[in-house]
Amino acid sequence: DEWAVCTPYLQIAVDNGFARHSAHSHYHEDLRNFNALPLRDWALPFKPQYWAFFLVDPAHAFAIYHAAFIALFLIGYQRMGRMLGMAPGISVCFSLLAFFAGYTQYAWTTTGPLLALFPWLLVTLAAPLRLPAKGLLLYWLAAVWLLSHFYPPVILSLGFVGAVLVLALRRDLLRWPLLATAGLAAALAAGTVYGYLAEPLQAMTATVYPGQRHSDGGSGDWRIWLSTVLPFITTRGFDSLIVHNIVETGAIGSYWPLLLLVFADWRQGL
Predict the structure, then answer these.
(1) DSSP assignment string, 68-108
(2) Looking at the predicted structure, is the pLDDT value of residue 260 above 90?
(3) Buried/exposed 134-168: b ≥16 CB within 10 Å, e otherwise
(4) Which of 146, 178, 237, 256 sits between 20 and 30 A of 131, alpha carbons compared?
(5) Sign of the CA dihedral with 144 first, then 146, 147, and 153 last
(6) For 164-199, what is each residue's pLDDT tens digit?
(7) pLDDT in the model for residue 96
(8) Are 204 and 75 in contact (CB under 8 A)?
(9) Sign, Cα dihedral of 151, 155, 156, 157
């Protein structure tokens, strides 16, 4: 996906003068697709990762693009950890663990933007801001998040994770005014993204991939699930040890749950 799709698309957009349709191909392909690109159109305010392309040369802008998401990931998960009640040192460990985990690294150049921006939605939701300001910021962040890589399997999975974290650890956020504000912001962001991608989405729905791709619930490999508490049982370096490609095999896991079970004071707990 990286060397055959993402970077070549980016090169096409730069060489094309950031116009929507490619002038260098007889297909005149539409550069609006689920891979975000720096284009001179009305959605540019929702693509801050690409603003540098209009200020500096493409090589430095490409470096800024990747460096920005790395910083957003590391800072964002640390802040989310603090928001969820982690001690400062533990939140730093949590952020580093999530960043260097298998799935994050294997899929970084494609779904990395979705992973990097996700914690900022929860951090903003819990921020001490007035509801109008919070709603506007949530709308902008959600639109930026969705447009960064419009891939529903990851978006829906992260949305589920966010709901679980709030229900488990921050029930104080479950207030109707805040929920209504967040819901309205999410709906407006979804509408904005659909308005931008409506034409390419309609064309892609009839394709075998990605239009008709689906994953059934419960169809995940049990060994990948187990690797969330026993890391490295399914991978060695950048090779998969089971019948999956490396991106599908990689998971975000840690030995921490097992350490808690081993060192917990079971007598006191009972």
Answers:
(1) HHHHHHHHHHHHHHHHTT--HHHHHHHHHHHHHSHHHHHTH
(2) no
(3) bbebbbbbbbbbbbbbbbeebbeebeeebeeebee
(4) 146
(5) positive
(6) 999 999 999 999 999 999 999 999 999 999 999 999
(7) 97
(8) no
(9) positive
Count of Cβ atoms closer than 10 Å to residue 108 Cβ: 19
Alpha carbon distance 168, 174 (integer Å): 11
What pLDDT does 1 receive? 79
Closest CA to 256 of 47, 93, 51: 93
Closest CA to 79 of 68, 70, 88, 67: 88
Instruction: Kindly give the interhelix angle for 176-204 and 131-148, rounded to the nearest 10 degrees.
Output: 20
Residue 270: the pLDDT is: 79
- Are the C-beta atoms of residues 149 and 64 closer than 8 Å to each other? no
